[in-house]
UniProtKB/TrEMBL annotation:
The keyword Membrane applies. InterPro entries: Cat_transpt, TrkH. Keywords: Cell inner membrane, Cell membrane, Ion transport, Membrane, Potassium, Potassium transport, Transmembrane, Transmembrane helix, Transport. This is Trk system potassium uptake protein. Belongs to the TrkH potassium transport family. Pfam families: TrkH (PF02386).
């Protein structure tokens, strides 16, 4: 059997390619779902999906043959490579149906759309979405749904193991891999998968019973729980802006995806109120209540009826904070306070171990704890203050992780915004575009990429830069940056 010399290297690519092959085979099977729908409808757009399936499946088979007999035992260095390469490869192959003719986008546009989907960002370059084939609408939802469950597994199982971004704060029995990486990953993935599928089914059925068309219910059900934000209309969720029941169901679905999935599993096993006891859950809900109350009051004072204001504010605030990216209205036109508030909310994100992007609530909470303790030290220089989070003492390693991630998060946004400015974009578009890409939110601010626009008018170079930003944000930034250091590649 053919072997590549690289596979015999201690840090070789054999195990990585083997796992990538499995991911491609799974991805190709998902392509059969929209293909089958289009075949049943007799839609000619089935052929791009057929060709995409053939290329993806064939590549997976080739990788399997090239790595036949390779023992899958991943070291930390290989885990870093696999984490980044898997998202890049999945995004690239997911773009094939759109490149092959559904609806035949350019490479830059197709890759941007697929990266946005897989990372559950929700930014789009498509116009006339309601006129696309049912297969492509379904494929956009499936990409976000697959990306969402992958994000949860990565956040709970992979990142704590790699000591990335302070994620070891949430190392539990399910994420304490020690030297048994793959068996642990299988256990975690199975439990998460069952919960994820269950919530998705509940969301789909509730949308359908509330009056959504079947395909809309399926796609929006998947993208709500995945906190992805792809909708079947150019107006996003504005299509249902006059149906408050559907909007409130969406709020619940988005919140479900933004809470820690490992706590759902613990609740099912222990029958306890573990979810409410979690400090980051309480912090997220408290933030939402305060912001929604203030903006509802702001809109009511400006003349809007109370319940309508509450519904619109609650939906859009939850959408942005959970990094879903749906919109029912151009909230940047609500007034100066609303525009500023939504820009700040772009950075927050949901809880660790959820489908949400952003900085995550726990990092703001840990930062506040460190700030309070620093103020105490200024008053009591010789005092000894123990820093605790969720009832546990914060270690220096965890604090360093939070500080390092926070610095590189804003540094990445700043560099990306500068690059977008060099592409000729105005300041608001460049800054909000960089922020929404790295935070995986979706819409930015301004007339071009705001809630009422999309990313189609941007130059291709800007789309490639934003695609990199979305991937970096989804992978907690440090996972990607470590690959750029010479030290990582030394033996």
């Amino acid at each position: 059997m053919l072997r590549l010399p690289l596979f015999r290297h201690p840090a070789g690519a054999g195990p990585v390619l083997r796992i990538l092959a499995m991911l491609l085979l799974v991805l190709s099977l998902f392509m059969l779902i929209p293909l089958a729908l289009l075949a049943l409808e007799g839609d000619g757009q089935m052929w791009p999906f057929l060709w995409a399936f053939a290329v993806t499946f064939g590549t997976g088979v080739v990788f399997i043959l090239l790595t036949w007999g390779v023992h899958i035992e991943l070291r930390p260095r290989q885990m870093f490579i696999l984490t980044t390469s898997s998202w890049v490869v999945m995004s690239a192959f997911s773009s094939l149906p759109m490149q092959f003719g559904a609806p035949r986008l350019s490479v830059a546009d197709a890759v941007f759309e697929s990266v946005s989907a897989i990372t559950t960002t929700g930014a789009t370059v498509l116009v006339g979405i309601e006129h696309l084939s049912d297969g492509l609408k379904l494929w956009r939802g499936l990409m976000q749904w697959v990306g969402g469950v992958g994000i949860i597994v990565m956040a709970i199982a992979v990142l704590p193991f790699l000591r990335v971004g302070g994620m070891r704060l949430f190392q539990t029995e399910s994420s304490d891999w020690s030297d048994k990486v793959l068996p642990r990953a299988g256990t975690v993935a199975k439990a998460i998968g069952l919960v994820y599928v269950g919530f998705t089914i509940v969301s789909i059925v509730s949308y359908w019973l509330a009056g959504m068309l079947p395909l809309d219910a399926v796609v929006h059900g998947m993208t709500s729980v995945a906190t992805g934000g792809f909708a079947n209309y150019d107006a996003s969720f504005g299509q249902y802006a006059d149906q408050p029941v559907i909007l409130w169901l969406s709020v619940l679905s988005m919140l479900t995806g933004a809470l820690p999935f490992v706590l759902y599993i613990r609740m099912a096993r222990e029958r306890s109120g573990v979810l409410w006891k979690d400090q980051q859950v309480r912090g997220l809900l408290a933030l939402l209540v305060v912001v929604i109350a203030l903006l509802t009051l702001y809109r009511t004072v400006r003349g809007m009826e109370f319940f309508d204001a509450l519904t619109q504010v609650a939906f859009n605030v939850v959408s942005v904070v959970t990094t879903t990216g749906y919109a029912t209205d151009d909230y940047t036109a609500w007034g100066p306070l609303s525009a500023a508030a939504f820009f700040y909310l772009t950075f927050v994100g949901g809880c660790s171990g959820s489908t949400s992007g952003g900085m995550k609530v726990f990092r703001f909470q840990v930062g506040l704890i460190m700030l309070v303790n620093q103020l105490r030290y200024l008053v009591h220089a010789n005092g000894v203050f123990v820093q605790r989070y969720n009832g546990r003492v914060l270690t220096d390693d965890q604090i360093r992780g939070v500080i390092a991630f926070s610095f590189f998060f804003f540094f990445t946004v700043a560099v990306l915004a500068l690059g977008l400015s060099l592409m000729g974009l105005d300041f608001v578009t460049a800054l909000s575009g960089a922020a929404t890409a790295v935070a995986n939110v979706g819409p930015g601010l301004g007339d071009i990429i705001g809630p009422a626009g999309n990313f189609a008018p941007l130059p291709d170079a800007a789309k490639w830069m934003l695609s990199i930003g979305m991937l970096m944000g989804r992978l907690e930034i440090l996972t990607v940056l470590v690959l750029l250091t010479p030290t990582f590649w030394r033996k």
